[in-house]
């Protein structure tokens, strides 16, 4: 038997574990701090509904006895073993690192479903009490959370009882990964939802006060959606990571540091990290891990994204609004808003994990 260890039970790690567990001759060990998988793009909706039903699944329910589950933190790894905090060393022949990123406090979920629901409940109670909520960071996560809050509290906002602020350092919301028409559409929709936008300046804090330049932004409660970093365990392997702490990978998802170690998702050094290519990327990863385990050539590759690429994506702004774009061989084009609402905004991928 060939031992395959996977660190991280996010959507990439869990998908790979599920596919590889059905391959004869492979023994899969999945190392996860969390006892469940949660679809991270759904978190802005979880934040206001405080409901994980349909948005999460227990790992034991997903895998049964097909995968060895170790609920622990991976502290470090080398070419042959993963060192965990409580369970010691876990030996492997092939390793997949799918540890994702370190999210802001509000988006970083606890280890159990019950504690995650408690987390969302406490967060929601704070935004319920606050009259002036300020979201700092206008990327996709920040815009989506702002849209959820603006939709949920639309009556209070209309009566002047609550105010939602969004501060973003760029002069337009989102990032250069989104086409201009999508950025304009998201900005316009947020304005129509009476969100107060502060663009082109960074937020500064002075005690409990928030400023953009010299202007104070009325704030009772702050939510940060900035500062995402790769979540990579320590390793003595030379040349494994770049200066940002991202794992350097080839188009085969093999690391540059060791051919028997693969990595995928937010922890790798791809310029664009998105869920849109999930199935394609995982298919390449799984096929190459199988080929490596069977001493066969690795024939599958992906084309690493560049800074100029604008990938397929959708931006949900609550269950009734959204904007998005579709990447094609001929360019990236805006999608009709109703398609984004149907594909993403209405459900925020509720039930998506049933595919595992």
UniProtKB/TrEMBL annotation:
Pfam families named among the record's database cross-references: Pyr_redox_2
Keyword line: FAD, Flavoprotein, Oxidoreductase
Residues covered by the FAD/NAD(P)-binding domain: 4-272
InterPro entries according to UniProt: FAD/NAD-bd_sf (IPR036188), FAD/NAD-binding_dom (IPR023753)
Keyword match Cytoplasm: no
Annotated family: Belongs to the FAD-dependent oxidoreductase family.
Protein name: FAD/NAD(P)-binding domain-containing protein
Organism: Pichia angusta
